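To: structure subgroup
Subject: Chain for Friday's discussion

All,

I'm putting the inputs and outputs inline so they're searchable in the archive.
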Amino acid sequence: MSTLLRLSGVTAFYGAIQALKGVDLEVNEGEIVTLIGANGAGKSTLMMTICGTPRARHGAIVYDGQDITQLPTYQIMRRGLAQSPEGRRIFPRMTVHENLLMGAHGHASGMVGETIEQVFALFPRLKERQAQRGGTLSGGEQQMLAIGRALMSRPRLLLLDEPSLGLAPLVVRQIFGAIRDLNRSTGLTVLLVEQNAFQALRLAHRGYVLVNGAITMAGGGAELLARPEIRAAYLEGGH
């Protein structure tokens, strides 16, 4: 199994505050890898650092064998990465269909219709709502739209930042089920940042635990789920 993404000794800062402290992380082709941790641990910062904002101060980020650490964000994303960001950030005045088209910007027009149909097959609710403005959708539908928009670029690596945030348990299961189906059917590689440690570790092949900007634990998803310190900190009301 080849390594698609590797972070080696990555540090990042917001002003004078160090948000990432020498992070080492690998994502292999075809894997779902999750990063769990409490709110404020640096999970979203890590995702943004991969995309070039903020820039890694030290260390290296290698994607598909090429060092992307100092590349501008637009060049990084053109290499086959797509992000569904925390907070969804859809275009509220645009329709579902128009939001999806925004995700396909810069890609071959002949593939757009086919890709939209694949997104609709994954999230049938979006097909029912395709003429509706994004801002009128429910929270779960907006999350489906954010993921669907990211998929429109036909990425090799999908970065998912807090897809379950603020959603009802039933909707969370639907979204995580769709991610699992997508990975199994297409081999799409996924890096998932998530506070819902139980759902994330059940879904992931491997996981990392981030505490105050540093990786403190790594292992298989089921292995981490079974560890008593993980259960105490993240699965039994801990923080």
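Points worth raising on Friday:
The longest strand covers residues 3-14.
The mean pLDDT is 91.

D.
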